[in-house]
Design the sequence.
């Protein structure tokens, strides 16, 4: 006699059930990066712009680690990818825009909050485009300025001005222009080198280690000046590469421009 149960829908006793959960280590790093962005907003509200910018830079360092840690420990997950994007939106989208607004953009009324919103909206658009274009973009380049670099431009300018004790009233419109530049550059198709083809597992010449040591020493001369200068150069490098490729007649799009990546086979036919 049939009891009404469907044996096809019943779990087999021989197949172990997979436990659902999340990986702690990479997601703890992502949460720490999220805290850096939240901390920056709170410090800006309290007028501590030096600490606010440090919070954003700390989030940048942590953001560069969570993905690498996940790959090294084989703990990648769809949850981790979504968590990373949400953390980036707070730390490199909302936080820099709000810090810039509270710092000086509020002094120009509606133009100030419009610039801050444009930056925040462009960060959201850039992150959404990155998520859907991951499989077709040449991994050696970013499509548009990456959000951490855009955040470094905005917060680095504030950090430098705070350290040099410059008059904020004289920096209102430069901050306005820089905020718009960083935001709009995120949503362009300009290629920015991603450094993803540099493997830490490969052997390097001894001189490379010496150059790293020299780089650390140079940064320590005056971190706000050096770091802001480096990100200004990087923020302009994409346009330099774009126009150089244009002049040479080479493709300027980063969509499927490499035939060397295994994931991109068949995309150029």
Sequence:
């Amino acid at each position: 006699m049939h009891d009404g149960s469907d044996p096809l829908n019943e779990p087999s006793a021989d197949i172990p059930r997979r436990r659902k959960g999340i990986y702690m280590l990479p997601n703890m790093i992502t949460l720490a990066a999220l805290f850096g962005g939240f901390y920056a907003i709170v410090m800006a509200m309290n007028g501590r712009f030096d600490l606010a910018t440090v919070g954003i830079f700390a989030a940048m360092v942590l953001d560069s680690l969570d993905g690498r840690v996940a790959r090294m420990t084989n703990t990648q997950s769809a949850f981790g990818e979504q968590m990373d994007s949400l953390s980036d939106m707070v730390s490199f989208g909302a936080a820099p825009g709000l810090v810039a607004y509270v710092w000086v953009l509020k002094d120009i009324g509606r133009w100030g909050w419009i610039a801050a919103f444009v930056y925040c909206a462009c960060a959201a658009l850039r992150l959404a485009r990155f998520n859907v274009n991951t499989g077709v973009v040449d991994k050696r380049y970013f499509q548009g300025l990456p959000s951490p670099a855009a955040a470094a431009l905005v917060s680095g300018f504030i950090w430098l001005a705070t350290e040099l004790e410059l008059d904020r009233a004289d920096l209102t419109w430069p901050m306005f222009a820089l905020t718009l530049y960083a935001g709009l550059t995120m949503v362009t198709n300009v290629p920015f080198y991603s450094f993803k083809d540099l493997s830490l597992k490969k052997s390097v010449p001894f001189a490379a280690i010496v150059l790293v040591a020299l780089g650390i020493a140079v940064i320590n001369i005056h971190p706000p000046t050096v770091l802001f200068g480096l990100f200004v150069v990087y923020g302009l490098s994409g346009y330099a590469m774009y126009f150089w490729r244009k002049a040479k007649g080479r493709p300027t799009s980063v969509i499927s421009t490499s035939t060397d990546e295994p994931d991109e086979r068949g995309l150029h036919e």
